[in-house]
Write a structure and sequence with these properties.
- The chain is an alpha/beta fold.
- The protein has five domains: 2-99, Baseplate protein-like domain - beta roll fold (Phage tail proteins - horseshoe like beta roll fold), CATH 2.30.300; 106-192, Phage tail protein beta-alpha-beta fold; 198-220 and 306-403, no CATH class; 226-302, no CATH class; 431-623, Glycosidases (TIM Barrel, Alpha-Beta Barrel).
- It is 26% helix and 34% strand.
- The chain contains twelve helices and 33 strands.
- Strands 1, 2, 3, 4, 5, 6, 7, 13, 14, 15, 21, 22, 23 and 24 form a 14-stranded mixed sheet that branches.
- Strand 26 and strand 27 (465-466) form a beta hairpin.
- The longest helix has 30 residues, at 395-424.
- This is Prophage protein.
- Residues 156-375 form the Tail spike domain.
């Protein structure tokens, strides 16, 4: 399962969760692309309820994406896109790039580098980068195991970004991969030969288990069957007699003088398979025809007949049934209808954040020799008949495989339906009641079966008189699994009494709750018309609850509609405002409306019951999340 947390800047250590299906923090869309040889990127679309909407600053806002608690992406914001859909919904889409792109924010200076190991050259490039950027963009050099036969490089560095210099001067010439590691003491960058692990015996891409789709494209179109080798340029002045100007032509060294007058080399075995296909290869540093001929013959030996390009769709579920496929790792591919069993390396992974069970993978290109190409091509011509015969012989086995696969699909669909339910219906939806001793003995299981999702239980009348049924009611909702809150009827005449009522409400409720589920909020009932200086005294009530560990988000004020202006309570100190008004909607802003005192609910037979409706988005977010 994926979670996303946003940060106002790279140095913000607090952040805010913007996506977590478990707490119904949702987004409209999200696609994460992880790559083995480039900068990872992420695109996210949110609506107005998401924290990111209107709060993203390009290159400043950062996000972390975790999979089952493991950090898999840290990136910074790029360009935003604002949109209104045909349904009238306003959305914003943001692109993020991995913090590896910090290497784009620095520029190297011209330098001639020689008598230097690849490792020291890499460190030099990172040192130049670190000298130009703030601390949070700096990298610590970690593991380096890439080298060459001489363990020495000779390079000219010009005015390019650090990232471009590393790609051009090291990776493109020596191979290897950059690996970013976010550690407690900073960001590390490794330059390594092998990025991943070979999984020879575990977690294959296998038909009937996790393989949803697979495509293999074999491309022989880049093949050369008649090679024209070209060496360095030969500068030659040619005088144009018609206008007495001098043009400079630059033919290249060829092999005609050492190859019986021919400037090309035929490759008979490839011509037999594909015909004559001319193509040139250039070696700019070769000035001698004999050396050029040797280089050309070496190239012919290494030339491949075709290139394979793979794309795979597979299921993965890191929490239980499936393992997670990682970029850089190699896995067995098992589906003889597409290709023979073989190891393939994942070089890119495309993740739909809203579908954590399914991803698309790009596989590293494979080069095939002529012999392999011919064997595969001819084998494929026979495979149809072989598979047809095998299908007829093993129809029962195939039916079982189909049945097993259908069972997997059913299981997966159940997971999909569950996730959709979390995304589209993340709040408790049902009856909200408030009760006291006047409702008598309540059958809470019957109330739950009748749709009660939140019960607000009176604890006390003033500070000295306990409600006669509150202990029984708290035990009942806990046993039935009903979410509950508590309230006290306010009678305080001064700040000291207000604090005493707050403390007794908290202590009584928590003592009754014991080791079970605690109240979701604590409310003060303000409807006693004889109360004076209500604003100041209620602030004291707020303060005492806060001292006891109840933040303002979990404090609620029940204010009589007709006394709202008279009491002038500071509503900013409460997480929600609850107002009673029977027959007509309250005339003041509210988060919950008590619309009747004569409600009927199964399990409550001694009296009618107060019922509430129209919870605001704030009320739902604070107290009704599933």
């Amino acid at each position: 399962m994926y979670t996303i947390r946003a940060y106002e800047s790279a140095t913000d250590n607090i952040g805010k969760t913007v996506f977590n299906l478990k707490t119904n923090k949702t987004i409209s869309a999200g696609k994460l692309t992880l790559k083995d040889s480039d900068v990872d990127d992420f695109q996210i679309t949110v609506n107005q309820t998401n924290f990111l909407f209107g709060n993203v600053r390009p290159l400043v806002t950062h996000i972390d994406i975790k999979q089952d608690g493991e950090l898999i992406f840290r990136g910074r914001a790029l360009k935003p896109k604002r949109e209104m859909t045909t349904a009238g919904q306003h959305t914003q889409t943001f692109s993020f790039e991995s913090i590896l792109a910090y290497l784009i924010d620095s520029t190297q200076r011209f330098k001639e580098v020689h008598d230097t190991t690849p490792a020291d050259f890499f460190r030099m490039l990172i040192d130049v980068h670190n000298s130009q950027v703030p601390d949070f963009k700096k990298f610590r050099v970690g593991v380096i195991d890439v080298t060459n036969s001489t363990d020495n490089v000779y390079r000219f560095v010009d005015y390019t970004t650090t990232y471009a210099a590393i790609k051009d001067k090291l990776i493109n010439r020596l191979g290897g991969y950059l690996r970013l590691r976010v550690e407690p003491d900073g960001n590390y960058i490794d330059y390594i030969n092998n990025l991943g692990t070979e999984h020879t015996n575990d977690n294959p891409f296998k038909i009937g288990k996790n393989l949803k789709s697979a495509s293999l494209e074999i491309d022989p179109t880049s093949i050369i069957t008649r090679l024209i080798p070209l060496g360095a340029n030969i500068e030659q002045d040619v005088t144009n007699s018609s206008n007495n100007t001098t043009a400079v032509s630059t033919p290249r060294v060829d092999i005609a003088t050492v190859n019986n007058g021919l400037d090309y080399i035929d490759i008979p075995e490839l011509q037999t398979e594909f015909g004559i296909i001319n193509g040139a290869q250039t070696w700019d540093d070769v000035h001698d025809p004999a050396i050029l001929l040797t280089r050309a013959n070496d190239w012919i030996k290494s030339q491949t007949a075709a290139t394979e390009t793979w794309t795979i769709g597979a299921l993965e579920y890191g929490l239980s049934k499936f393992s997670t496929f990682k970029v850089g790792d190699s896995y067995q591919f098992i589906n003889s209808l597409v290709a023979d069993k073989q190891m393939i390396q994942v070089i890119q992974k495309d993740i739909d954040i809203l579908k954590p069970f399914s991803s698309t993978f790009t596989i590293g290109q494979k080069k095939k020799s002529l012999a392999s190409y011919q064997i595969d091509y001819r084998a494929s011509a026979k495979k149809y008949d072989q598979l047809k015969a095998l299908t007829n012989q093993q129809s029962n086995a195939i039916e079982k495989v189909a049945s097993d696969f259908n069972q997997w699909q059913t299981s997966i669909q159940a997971e999909i339906d569950n996730l959709k339910s979390l995304i589209s219906d993340g709040y408790l939806d049902g009856k909200i009641i408030d009760v006291s001793e006047f409702q008598g003995d309540i059958d809470w299981q019957a109330a739950k079966n009748d749709g009660v999702v939140l019960a607000i239980i009176r604890i006390q009348y003033g500070g000295s008189r306990e409600d006669l049924k509150y202990k029984q009611n708290i035990a009942g909702v806990q046993a039935a699994g009903i979410r509950y809150a508590v309230y006290g009827y306010g009678l305080y005449a001064n700040q000291a009494e207000a604090k005493e009522e707050a403390e007794s409400l908290f202590n009584r409720a928590n003592t009754a709750a014991g080791s079970g589920v605690k109240p979701i909020f604590y409310a003060i009932d303000l409807e006693e018309s004889t109360m004076t200086d209500v604003k100041a005294n209620t602030l004291a009530w707020n303060q005492r609850l806060t001292e006891l560990g109840v933040d303002s988000e979990h404090q609620v004020a029940y204010i009589a509609n007709q006394l709202y202006d008279q009491f002038n309570v500071d509503v900013s100190k409460f997480g929600s405002i609850w107002i009673p008004s029977y027959g007509n909607e309250p005339t003041h802003s509210y988060d919950l409306w008590q619309y009747t005192s004569k409600g009927q609910v199964a399990g409550i037979t001694a009296n009618t019951v107060d019922m509430n409706q129209s919870p605001s988005q704030r009320f739902k977010d604070n107290y009704l999340r599933r």
